[in-house]
Amino acid sequence: MLDCIKNKPVFLFVQLDEVDGAGHHNGYGTHEYFSKITEIDGMVGRMYDAYQAAGIIDDTLFVCIADHGGINHSHGGWSDTEKRVFFAASGRGVTGGEPEFAVTKDISAVVLYALGLDIPDYNENGYSSQVPEGMFDDCDKPYIIPEAMLRPVFRQTEGFDSPEGFGKLFSSRINLCMFMDNTLTDESGRCTVTENGRVKFYSNGVRGETAEFGKTGNIVIGGLDFGRSFTFSLWLFADPGLDGSACILGNKSPERGQHQSEGFNLLLRNHSVMVQLGCGNDDTDSVTSFETDGYSGWVNIAVSFDYDNLEITTVINFDRKHIDTVDKKYFDALSSGGVFTVGDDVNGQFNSGRNLIFRMDDLIVFEGILSDKDLNILKKYYS
Questions:
Q1: Chain center to CA of 274
Q2: Rounded to whole angstroms, how far apart are CA atoms 68 and 104?
Q3: Degrees (nearest 5) of the Cα angle 290, 382, 251?
Q4: CB-based burial label for 50 (10 Å; 0-12, 13-18, 19+)
Q5: Euclidean distance between the first and final Cα of the chain, in Å?
Q6: Looking at the domain 166-382, which fold is it?
Q7: How far apart are CA 105 and CA 67, in angstroms?
Q8: What is the pLDDT of residue 32?
Q9: For the segment 99-144, what is each residue's pLDDT rounded down to a tens digit?
Q10: 82-to-26, 155, 182 alpha-carbon distances in Å
Q11: CA–CA separation, 169 vs 157, rounded Å?
Q12: Contact by Cβ (8 Å): 232, 366
């Protein structure tokens, strides 16, 4: 590489992949990760010195940029540590300071500008790379912030204990409250949450952010007391192209051959949701259709388990859609399954073995069943 610089190249691209490798192997933000950054920084310095030694540094634009950040051992989500990257430039015409706005794909326009080549006109749906405003002292072309960046942001989640939050709206009836806003915390403080694999976060939740579960990651909830009757409410992004049934949450295995499995599951299918219950030697299902062919988008699902009346009620978008009466043996086994798991089955193998992924927002577990008044409160909160 240094010998190549001696030949005074017109354009040179060098990819140093060791930092990314250290992040995946040791974890982003670890001592080993930063040690590798220090090592790569030394390599970059030697390249810069080689340009100086070749006598061409004054006529060279020297750019250093990362393609992404990372968190834990992965990347691709919405957290700042994943999406915000280092970008530095030095050379003739570079003004210094920090640009008002830039994205990684702008590097292509920067390179064209430095080589004196024409840059295609900006098109949000086509070529949208631009020279960051103020980067060069002889480039006065205004930067067009993409329309997607100017659209209204999604409504943020109310704090759990805020006047309009779930803690105030439902008092002590909430046994689990997870907003999925770049964190897997139980806001009620009653349960523990353990992450298996990698749960990613994205910005376009119903309120605040949303979490992606399935083949890449799931969570196990500890300390959750279902009691005799309970309700769980959550938002799912329904996808008619879903390649098979995805296990959303539960404490049993949905595999039909494992009738010894006790407990319950919620499964998302192409056009319906299914509640599956097991009592140790038998299973039964309660299926509720979305009633729209090809339904897609966010849908609120609430399922109540009413022990007194032996009823399972499924609510879609705050309207009661389906009620099934089941044998008492299934209700007696609801809490007898394994550890409550979100994002996969109790074994953590159903979705991962089928390459299934889905998005979820605002998972709430209530004590008791939801009345019409409760459903109206939820509807108003999300409207």
A1: 24
A2: 9
A3: 60
A4: middle
A5: 59
A6: Jelly Rolls (2.60.120)
A7: 9
A8: 95
A9: 888 999 999 999 999 999 999 999 988 999 999 998 998 888 889 9
A10: 16, 22, 12
A11: 14
A12: yes
Q: Which of 6-10, 137-141, 361-365 has the lowest mean pLDDT?
A: 137-141
Query: Which amino acid belongs to residue 141?
Result: K
What contacts 291, CB < 8 A, 6 or more positions away? 321
Answer yes or no: are the C-beta atoms of 71 and 81 closer than 8 Å.
Answer: yes
pLDDT tens for residues 279-301?
988 899 999 988 765 567 899 99
- At 246, give phi and psi (nearest 5°): -100, 135
Local structure of residue 215 (DSSP, 8 states)? T
How far apart, in whole angstroms, are the C-alpha atoms of residue 132 and residue 102?
6
Can you tell me the mean pLDDT for 234-244? 82
| 2-150 fold | Alkaline Phosphatase, subunit A (3.40.720)
Residue 339's nearest CA partner among 251, 217, 231 is 251
Query: Any idea which residue has 């394994």 for tokens?
Result: 338
How many residues can be counted in the chain?
383
List alpha helices for the chain, DSSP H. 2-6, 18-26, 31-53, 80-83, 107-114, 147-150, 166-169, 328-332, 372-382
* Strand, helix or coil for residue 23: helix
For the chain, the structural domain boundaries read: 2-150, 166-382
Cα–Cα distance list, 275 to 177, 218, 220, 359 (Å): 21, 19, 19, 18
Query: In degrees rounded to 5, what are phi and psi of residue 197?
Result: 75, -140
